[in-house]
Amino acid sequence: MEVVFSVLLVILISGFHVQGQGGLKTGFYSSSCPKAEEIIRATVEAHFNKDPTIAAGLLRLHFHDCFVQGCDGSILITGASGERNALPNLGLRGFEVIDDAKTQLEALCPGAVSCADILALAARDAVVLSDGPSWAVPTGRRDGRVSSKAEASNLPSPTDSIAVQRQKFMAKGLDDHDLVTLVGAHSIGQTDCLFFSYRLYNFTTTGNADPTINQAFLPQLQAICPKDGDVSKRVALDKDSQFKFDASFFMNVQDGNGILESDQRLLGEAATGRIVQNYAGSIRGLLGLRFDLEFPKAMIKMSGIEVKIEAQGEIRKMCSKFN
Q: Which domain of life is it from (predicted)?
């Protein structure tokens, strides 16, 4: 039954994305490089088997790419002025996985597969390897010819209010439902104490912690991130199942166990809070939105942001350099 459901899910989502993806389509490489998706999947799996945390890194890499200049591989470019060196991108991981896949594809099908498509496919494969849903990824993106460090300042931040998060997502054609659903990627993520420890000690400037943190959870976080401690210490964004892609992240947010301020704030605003509660309800056995159905739709929508096709871009020989 599970296998049948998975097949139906992929067919359903395929039907969803064929329309309105700016010239992208599934199976784009069926003639030019038939083994492209297979090679990318095998490459991601090889790296994942050595380090499962790379899955979250690849998912985040694709997200950060799409939010600056669109989904065009511009995040991969090295150089002082490139977006890769912007402050919000300094902790990104997974570049070596993309380069590994690209090297293999160039040897087999020179000049055929874009780095932007490798990113999109690797993100999907990372979710699948983390026991998440699969989906048919529309392909045909070209690689962008611009990578701007300055533009990366517009990326969502852990300290953003709901209003700011909403504005940043709306600027990319994404609504509240997409916002909450895509934040669900934190189901398999980690963060440093640096990005949330301010919530634990002097959040109100009177020495108190953020009141939205569950009081039973607060001492656990303070033990991991002591005051004046090592700010580079890593903490799972989903305390219950950090290596399993599921909806328990939303249950944690509902219970006041969200790690990042921006995540926990989703519950406190009426529109986004309803969506969080819907996803949390589904894992508690109540009638709710199915995260494993909604996340692929949101990813397909996001991966179509400002894509370049045909003459609008290039297919790089190396993902880290323009041709």
A: Eukaryota
Question: 20-60, pLDDT tens digit by residue?
Answer: 366 899 999 999 999 999 999 999 999 999 999 999 999 99
DSSP 236: E
Angle 37-188-130 from CA coordinates, rounded to 5°: 40
43 token code pair:
């490459």
Does residue 64 have an active-site annotation? yes
Q: What does the CA dihedral 110, 104, 129, 221 come to, rounded to 10 degrees? A: -110
* CA dihedral (208, 221, 239, 97) positive or negative: positive
Name the token pair of 86. Answer: 């912007």
Alpha carbons 142 and 116: distance in angstroms, whole number: 7
What's the rounded Cα separation, in Å, for the pair 197 and 311? Answer: 47
**CB-CB neighbours of 218 under 10 Å:** 16
- Token pair, residue 308, equals 């370049």
Percent over 70 (pLDDT), the chain: 91
Name the catalytic one among 47, 62, 64, 177: 64
Element (H, E) at 192: strand 190-192
Distance (Å, whole) CA 152 – CA 242: 27
Distance from C-alpha of 102 to C-alpha of 33, rounded to nearest angstrom: 12
Tell me how far apart the terminal alpha carbons of the chain are, to the nearest angstrom: 48
Exposed, middle or buried, 216 (CB in 10 Å: 0-12/13-18/19+)? exposed
Beta bridge partner(s), residue 143: 314
CA distance linking residue 265 with residue 253, whole number of Å: 9
